[in-house]
Structure formats: structure tokens, C-alpha cells
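Incident review: delayed structure delivery

Summary: a single-chain prediction request sat in the queue longer than the usual turnaround. Root cause was a stuck worker, restarted by the on-call engineer. No data loss occurred. The affected request and its eventual output are reproduced below so the record is complete for anyone auditing the incident later.

Affected input:
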Amino acid sequence: MSSAILDALWTKLATTSGSGFVADLGGRVWLDLAPDDEALPLCVYSGTTTRFERSVSGIDHTMRVVFSLYDSADTNADIVAAQNKLRSLLDGAALTATGYDRVLCQLRSRGVPTLQDDSWTLSEEYELRGRLTT
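Output delivered after worker restart:
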């Protein structure tokens, strides 16, 4: 079931019109791992924690997703702009995922740019919570 949430998340990220999150990063957004020697800026995201809880009305599934943004040492402006776009796109959004009534996104941890070695990094953590329908 985690893959259904990640699929819905990717759909939300990739189908934003105009200059959306993925477009602003030149399409360089990957699940779990980026290719070697990829140009910056880029983003790698992954589902880190999954929890299932039974309630009176069904089973709630919660997944934590961490977005890690990377930029060149010259500037962090691109990842800060991407961070803001990601927040406006996901925080409070409802996703449509197969097998769920809906999946709600909420920002849990907002990162700040940090210079490490020869690049800037920034991490954001979102909680995605849905109720299973199947």
C-alpha cells in the first residue's frame, strides 16, 4: 500500500501546471536515489516511516516522507525557491491514492539550507495520512 501513496505523491509533484516543483528543478526529482553525476539543483525523496492504526472507522495509514534538496556551493536560492513551492503544493493538500479514501499531506519539519562540503542541502519532512478503503 505504501507504493500507492508514493504514486499519488509523484502524480501531485509532476502534474502541477506551469513552473511547478519538478519543472523548477529541471525534472531532477527522484524517489530514493539520484543518478551519479547529476546536475544540481535536484531533489531526492523517500518514505521513511509507515504506521498502520486500526480505528472504529477503518485502518489509518501514516507515512513520513523526507524531501532532500541539493544545490551548488555558489548559491542555495534554487532549493529555497523549490522548498517554498513544495510547501505551497503539499502542505494541507489531499491526494487521490488507489485503495484510500484520500491522503492528506502535512508539513512536519521545515528545513534550513546547510552548506556541507561543496553543496547546499535542505530537508523537509511531510506526513501523509490516509484511510484504507480495501
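Verification: The mean pLDDT is 91.
Action items: add queue-age alerting; document worker restart procedure.
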